[in-house]
Amino acid sequence: MLREHRGELDPATVRVIEQNLLIIDQATEQARKALAADPANRYLNGHLAAQLMRKMTLLRQATAIVAVHG
Fold it and tell me: What is the rounded distance in angstroms from the CA atom of residue 70 to the CA atom of residue 65?
């Protein structure tokens, strides 16, 4: 949705959303790699779940912003 409506949003808003998504994706990838080495680690499992929740929350917020401005 963000890709489809990015032209309707302030470029600074799009930039912040994209930067945050990149940070979350990097943290998620690091957690996945760490879990591959230690799959029973409860902390890493929780960390990965938290990163995925952060991404979902950010995507929901981005969708809400697009809906308001679109």
Answer: 8
Say which residues have a Cβ less than 8 Å from residue 55's Cβ, sequence separation at least 6.
21, 24, 25, 28
Fold of 14-69: Helix Hairpins (1.10.287)
Q: What is the pLDDT of residue 55?
A: 93
Q: Which two tokens stand for residue 65?
A: 């912003």
Number of residues assigned to the chain: 70
pLDDT in tens, 23-64: 999 999 999 999 999 999 999 999 999 999 999 999 898 888
| Category of 6 on φ-ψ map: left (φ > 0), alpha (ψ -120 to 50) or beta | alpha
Distance between CA atoms of 2 and 24, rounded to whole angstroms? Answer: 16
